[in-house]
Structures are given as C-alpha cells and as structure tokens.
Amino acid sequence: MKRTRLLHSGLSQVISELGHTDGLVICDAGLPIPPEVRRIDLAVERGLPPFLAVLDVVLSEMMVEGIVVASEIHAVNEDVYQGMLEAFGRHGMHPGVVEVPHVEFKSQTRLARAVVRTGECTPYANVILRSGVVF
Hints:
- The longest helix has 13 residues, at 78-90.
- It is built from 5 helices and 6 strands.
- By secondary structure, it is an alpha/beta fold.
- It has a 6-stranded mixed sheet.
- It has one domain (9-131): RbsD-like fold, CATH 3.40.1650.
- 31% of the residues lie in helices and 22% in strands.
C-alpha cells in the first residue's frame, strides 16, 4: 500500500504523467466536463468530498507553479479562494494566479490533462493547476 496521502490510483497516475505547465482541473460538482478530457469523478454525494480537501491531497503530490480561477469567485465564494491560497502555503507553494471570466475558465478546461470532480456544491469552487517542476 502507498505511504503517501493520495490513494486514488487514477488520480495518482495522472499526476505522475504531468509535464511542465500541463493542466489539472479540480472542480465542484456542477462544472461541465468536456467529453474529450479524462474525468476522475470523486463525487459521492453533495459536499463529499469537499473541494479544499481534494486540493490539499493533490498538493501533497503535485508541484504547482500557476493556477487559473474564475474571477467571479471573489463575489460569491471568497472563503474557498482564501482556502486555496492557504493550502498552497501549507505545501510551500506560491503559484501565480490568473483570473478569467467563468466562461473562459470553462473553455480552458478543454486543454487539461484531466478534470477531477468533487462533491463540492458551492459556486466557482474550481481551479486549473499548472504543473511545475521540482528542480
């Protein structure tokens, strides 16, 4: 059995295959996922697992140099945004942040290597993680 926190084999595999600047999306239960992008569906029920818990586990295995969020997050879900920044800090990362309108965010998910769907049911709890390098 793995000794690290991340036990989900599909998610672990996708992270191990990421190259520099590749995108991995972690999203709420409502974000439309493009059919051509790999889907890793973790949603069990409303709120389970929560977005920030999934992000924290992913950050324990993935180096992130940049993120993309919907600019609308500040108006309705600032707590999740601040929670994201705190999670990065706990893992010693301070990625560059790009904010785009939600419509553009959804368009950018088409370029991701995979989309990880959580059970989060709060608006704009979505992030595109840009893979960094460890050297």
